[in-house]
Amino acid sequence: MNVSLQYAVHYANMDDGAGLESEHSVAAGVLKFARRSALPGLLAARFVEQYDPSDWGANGPGVVTAVLLRRCGLGGLPLPPSHCGDFTIFGSRRFYGVPWPEWRLLLTPAQRDTVLERVDASYVVHTWGLHISGHSAPPGSALYQLAEQHCPLALAASGSRF
Predict the structure, then answer these.
(1) Which of 16, 56, 94, 140 is most buried, most CB within 10 Å of its CB?
(2) What is the separation of C-alpha 28 from the centre of its chain, rounded to a whole number of angstroms?
(3) What percent of the residues of the chain are helix, what percent strand, and what percent coil, each to the nearest 5?
(4) Membrane-crossing residues (predicted)?
(5) 21-51 as b/e, with b when 16 or more CB fall inside 10 Å?
């Protein structure tokens, strides 16, 4: 699940690009390409060549990172926010203000203000569904507050199991 903090019209006007998940990888969660971009074909070819059913990270961020490192001539790690022609590699806070190793912060009421500050300029808050599934967002947590503000229908429909 992702919590969208910006209107869809903002996505239409967003530069083609992807977001850094960390200084070591470009995530596959948000990708935008121009109609004639060569990047989707390069990503698909890399995915087909090196698909590993036992390694989720290699199939998502691993593919995107490897293709962009090669295509854009990036100097390696750590990866900075950058541009590659008309393609933008956005900083991690744009989509991944809470890194996956810290996903529990989304559910911790005592960390609410810290999380909300970190995601304030984000287009989307990625909630790391693989990790967060099976857990509930308690009232007072950042995820619960974000759902109240941006996803009230989903929150209401979830009953006590949000």
Answers:
(1) 94
(2) 7
(3) 45, 15, 35
(4) none
(5) bbeebbbbbbbebeeeeebeebbeebbeeee
Give the span between the Cα atoms of 30 and 28, in whole angstroms: 6
Q: Which of 23, 14, 13, 6 is nearest to 81 (CA)?
A: 23
pLDDT tens by residue, the chain, 162 residues: 555 555 555 666 777 899 999 988 999 988 889 888 899 999 999 999 999 999 888 889 999 999 999 888 877 778 888 888 888 999 999 899 999 999 999 999 999 999 999 999 888 899 988 889 889 999 999 999 999 998 899 899 987 778
In the numeric block, the tokens 């996505």 are attached to: 11
Q: Name the residue among 68, 114, 67 with its Cα closest to residue 106.
A: 114
Please state, in angstroms and rounded to a whole number, the distance separating the CA atoms of residues 136 and 116: 18
Q: Where do we find the tokens 């979830």?
A: 158
